[in-house]
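Example 3.2
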Amino acid sequence: MDKKIEKSDMKNNTKWILAVVAVIAIFLWFFNSINDSLRGPSSGGQQQNLSLRSLILSTVTKGRFDDYLYVQGIVSPKSTVYLDAIAGGRVEERFVQQGEYVKQGQSLVRMSNTSLQLDVISREAQISEQLNFLRNTQMQAETNRLDLLQSLLDTDNIIRHLARKLRQSERLLKHGSISEEEFSGIAQDLEYNKKRRALTLERQTQEDKVRSLQIEQLEDSAQMLNKNLKFARDNISNLLVKAPVSGYLSDFSVELGESKIQGYRLGQIDIPGQFKVVASLDEYYLNKISLGMNVHVKIKGQKQILTISKIDSRVNNAQFQIEVDLPDILPNNDAELSVADQIKRGQTMAMDIVLSESTNETLMIERGAFINNTGGNWIFVLNTDTGTAYRRSITVGKKNQQFIEVINGLEEGDRVIISNYSAFDKADTLNF
């Protein structure tokens, strides 16, 4: 006998279970949407959990922004005189030590050079021989001049005697005491000597001109030879190196027994009481730096306003150098202090280079390591109500050692993370 099978309620229960699950899923989706909207515009990006204690926070403020560049400089002497070996040689004696104060003309080191000494002796012999030749030439010219004068005197004397004899012969010829031929001979001798005298005078004039030119040239040659002899002797005297100026011998690389070639840098002398600060800057600032820019420095706790005195635009290893002259005297309330008593050569000095005038009511944040990760294009902004932080695009402007100028993207009072982002730079939202 067939038994009637009753219809089960299992299908109805399944429908109710699915409906409940759907309602719960809708509720959870709605709750997460509300929560995400409170956290900020994460756009569904990556999230990362962090401890707030490990981060550095800063508040966006408004105030005076000083556009300056912080650099470290080295104190150097303003004026330096270098010591180069004019004549090379072997170091025989050293009279001073590095760091000592030396006076102008003081002996510093004595060197020897055998080949130079032999060369000077040879030159002295050659020059002396040439000078003797010049003196002999001058003496010969003077002898010729005197001989010519003697010849002229003799001719004049003959002319006088013949003229007197001719006058006497004229009276004797009238009385027939002498012949016509004898009288003519005396007259011819007189005429010959007169012509000879004229020729001697012409020769004397020509030789005087030649002799004057020759003596002038010989004197110039003698002066040149004497200068060459003095130069050769000076080379010997240059083996004894002396201080050209008074100052501190800050560098003196000379040791007994070593050889120094001509032109070798032996050391340097720093002029006391005059200093400058030399600093290296990144080539990025080459077009931003100009002569006369104000520089703030602190010397013994007192702020001094100086100016850039020199810019070396040659770029080496992506850097160029500037110089700032320090004053000789520093004002100190009612007294004056010497710079030389306050600083020392080689010490490091911090400087603030004022790039532009300060601006008031500037939006800014403290400078932090985040700028190296984001380049100033974005930053994490903290939402204290939800305990989260999210990315926000920003635009920054000028930077100094303490602050960064904010152009847009942030408002006064915003709390931002300024520490290093390397551990979470891929995240869009941070949960604390």
